[in-house]
Every structure is written in C-alpha cells, then in structure tokens.
Amino acid sequence: MTGDTVYGSHRPLREGLEKRLQAYGLAVSCQEQVEVQGERKRVDHIADGLEPNLWHRLSVGDGSKGPRPFDWARVELAKPEQEGWQKWLVIRRSPVSGEKPADRAYVLVFAPCGTTLAQMATAIGTRWTVEQCFEEGKGEVGLDHYEVRSRPGWYRHITLSMLAHAFLVVVRMQSQMLMEDPPEDEEKKRWKPFLLHTPSKTLSAFKRQRGLVCP
User: Fold this and answer.
1) Which range marks the domain in which residue 108 is found?
2) Beta strands 2-3; 24-28: pairing state
3) Averaged pLDDT for residues 28-56
C-alpha cells in the first residue's frame, strides 16, 4: 500500500496495516519523528546526517523526457513486533544541480525482511503512476464529473469513465504500434506504422488528433 502524507501521517492507519501484515510505503512530512537506535528524531534531521555512500542513484519510471533518476537512501528504524518484518525510513532526493538545494521526500516503509532498497523505491514509485491515471481520467473522461447521491449511480459513472479511459488508452497504443504487412515473400518482411500519423505523446493530444474532443 502506498499513499501521500495525508495517509502516512495518520499513525493509527500505519499501526492497523502492521497488525494485518500489510506492507506499505507511506509518505510523511519532514517534521515526522521516528525511533532510531532508541532515540526519537525528526526524519529531516536523520537525512541531514547521512553519509554520501548511503545514497544510491535509481530510476523507478520514465517521464515525458525519459528516465527520472533520483537519489535514494534508507535507515532502519526500531524493530516492529511482527516477526520477519522490518521498518525503514526511505529518503528520496532529487539530483543536486547548482546552488539550489535538493528536494527531498520521506517515506515510512513496513516490509518483509530482506526487501531491497530498489524494491522499495519501485513500490513507492507506483503511487505516481496511479495518481497520473486519476489525473488523466478526471481531465479526459470526466471521472470526477458525477452529480449523484446514491452509491449505484456513483458506481455506474465511475465504471463507465474507467471503461472509456481504458478504451482510449488501448486504441492510442494500437494506433502507434508497428504492424506487420501481409507477407509477399516469407523471407522478406517489412514493417510500417499502423496509422499514418505522428504518434501522440499524451491522451489529450490523441483525442484532439482523432476528433474526439467535445466542442
């Protein structure tokens, strides 16, 4: 389970997940205090004292301009009551450039023993993908444009919006795939774009390109 600081700062939620043995990576604010070696410290103060060799450059996803590398580090926290599990403070830091201080994010992780930093970073990164899907759904297929008071009405609207979103994503992907021509010669095969148009970078651009935008 992943979530932003609204969820990560809610201690009863974290404790409930731990009792259920549900792994999580929940973001917290810089003022959050955690227990390290019997002492409670603010997470930003812990990050300030990390040695350079504890940081690792990892990319957990591509942005519009390719891979998005960040520096990651982790600090083991007080051992939880659950056998076979560990708690960590994971810090994500943007690459330092010039005199501008690096942006940092703090995530509390509850995971089985042996979980690597790369695995934690990958799980944490999935939250941004989900948020992007929600943002795209709201902007392109009216995911949040419902005016109902009953659960059945809300459920129907959400289901149709998600179906429309999935349909558009699949059609967009198929329109940009390289499809094989019917073979004139089995030994010589040529490839060409399925549709003769410039690949669209976003779902919004694809909708405009295909005339799917309502006036």
Assistant:
1) 2-128
2) parallel
3) 93
